[in-house]
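Input.
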Amino acid sequence: MKKTLFSAICILLCAASGAQELKEYMTDPTDWSLTHVGDDMNVDLDLNIKDLNIKGNSVVTLTPRLVNGADTASLSTVGFYGRKRWFYYQRNIKRIPDGFKDESLKEKDMPETWSWSEAFPYESWMDGSQMELLRQVYGCCNDIKYEDVIPLGKYTQYNPVFIFIAPKFEATKNRHIEGRAYVDFPVSQTVIYPDYRNNRVEIGKILSTIDTLKSDGDIEIKSLSIKGFASPESPYENNTRLAKGRTEALKDYVSELYHFPANFIRTSFEPENWEGLREYVLASGISHRQEILDIIDIQDRDPDTKEWILKSRYPEEYKYLLANCYPALRRSDYYIEYTVRNYSDIAEIERVFRTSPGKLSLHELYLLASKYEIGSPEFEKVFDVAVTLYPEDEIANTNAAGAALKAGRLDKAGEYLAKAGDSAHAEYFRGIYSWLSGDRDGALEHFSKAEKGGIAEASDAISKIKVTSL
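Output.
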């Protein structure tokens, strides 16, 4: 009897509702986005429903969907019920209208905003499709009183555009090479004996480096610096004599072989190599390591007193250091400065790249990369080599990151971006990295920074992936 009476009331209400306007059921799409990541199409939509006015016997359903011709992909439907209709729904333990299976809320329980965050399998027809919101208003007789479609916008797939930085041209390519030689001397002497112990090999390190540079027609040696070190056995005055005299002896030996001009070889010396001793102790497992380090770090004692404290407090450890560490503290560090001529012909740059890539500047490597198709193995290899040769250079790391992103090597790109600095180009590639990693918000953040830095491609990226507000 109650159901019959309710149905009759519904018929009367439905007949009287024809003049009701759809504006009573206002909804305001605020933010939406479509993101194609891998095999999925991710959909995010925020809808302002605070002005949605639902009559007591009405149901408003909202269904976001992606449409392209006859193809449609729909998100879950949400239904909002007027008070009377909600109680009828509760008594009948079913959703109304018939077949409606998704989220349902009573009008007074509605939040101000309703959000969707769903995904469905990506299909090719979705490129160029329209994102829209289907809004339907049902009366008490389960008939559709009103229906409209709110267009949200067109989905355009974002395909990153890769732009690379042309490094500055180096008018003069200044380079250097450095090394370390352990030349031995008889106790308390400063005369070099080439055949003494392993001196042929150690002195040979310096000579072979010089010979290699001198034999290259593209290279001009500018200077050679030698710094000699003695170990910290007291007395300090004697160590000063040895460090200075042995460094001068090595300088004279090299000068006589090559007849370098005056002042070509520069020398300096360190009477006692406490820094080298500290490095050794710190890396060792020696007993009383921290106590020994504390002695080494004493600043207000002369070196001889400091060495006496070390020897007297820890005689066994001192004996060990004397035998295993001190010989290596007596060394000669060398530093050779030279210039390399510039290359402009791509064929010549390519030849040098195969044989001696270290002779190329970042600008020359960029010219070579420009010969290859972006994304090709050859293109990526050039930038990988560039960042190997110039590991701390921000431009080298930025370009290498872009090449890795183009090749789909996100892990490698992340390593390069960590050292790429904060330039607009670096931010642009961070935007692409975030996008390819599925981090849409991060992509927008980095693209915005790149856009402010003058990267036009960042503006285009934002327009394709940014949340659209209607």
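The longest strand covers residues 144-154.
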